[in-house]
Amino acid sequence: MEEIEVELPRAGITLRGRRSGRPGGLPVLCLHGWLDNCASFTPLSERVEGLDLFAFDLPGHGLSDPIPGPTCQYLDYVACVLELARVLGWDRFQLVGHSLGGALSALIAGARPELVERLVLLDAIGPLSADPVLGRDSVTRYLNAYLADEPAPVYRSRSQALKARMQLADILLDTADRLLERDLRQVPGGFSWRSDVRLRYPFTLTFSEEQVRSYLANITAPVLFVGAERTALKEDYYEGRFAAVPRLRRVTLAGGHHLHMENPDPVAEAVRDFLTEVP
């Protein structure tokens, strides 16, 4: 995969990532999960042909610059992705999103449906939601963490950092090792994370479930939801979300939440067939 970087003048940051496949085709933009990076899509890129595939580190992840300001929330990321598409000159593109990237992809496709040709959601469908009290409390916890300004942890060795990354999201050794290549840096005393420290603060839950479903209902693109047998989607509201998407098809494949890395062959086949399907 070719290393690429794109400056976003409005956001005031640079995004870095990788590109693979066949230049000139309809671009496929891959958005990774929380505390992951674009390396999570390397197994997929190695198994699809004929697609112009772009995978960027989201702001504050991997090698990309962090979002300026005190917060880094869903709509901050959405704005950066939309600016990225504009800078690259894309009038239409296809989206593949995992976890956080799936939440962002659903918001993008719901807010700007004319931009998205097809949408693939990997064990994700929209952002987390909460009732007003839980939402308020999540904001309080984030602000407390922001003001405390605790530094990122330092690990004595790479193997210690690798173990911590596995435990953070209950992922396999190979999966964690692949992600570390863009997210670990040497510091005095050992190793620490490149990622924005704010990503480890409590996440703010600023959407109600009704708001999330309004975005999902406004998606006009065909949507493929690839769920994991050991899915991370445990909340009761997800069935209502599936029903809200007008043109949704669902498939469940073996693996955990990172199934596109743990079990890439059937995931790549499903994604490739869907994205190259003749209308």
Automatic annotation (TrEMBL):
Record keywords: Hydrolase
InterPro entries the record matches: AB_hydrolase_1, AB_hydrolase_fold, AB_hydrolase_sf
SUPFAM superfamilies: alpha/beta-Hydrolases (SSF53474)
Occurrences of domain AB hydrolase-1 (ranges): 27-264
MF terms (GO), sorted A to Z: hydrolase activity
Signal peptide limits: none
Gene3D superfamilies reported in the protein's UniProt record: alpha/beta hydrolase
Source taxon at top rank: Bacteria
Listed Pfam families: Abhydrolase_1
Family: Belongs to the AB hydrolase superfamily.
Name by which UniProt lists this protein: Alpha/beta fold hydrolase
Organism, as annotated: Allokutzneria oryzae
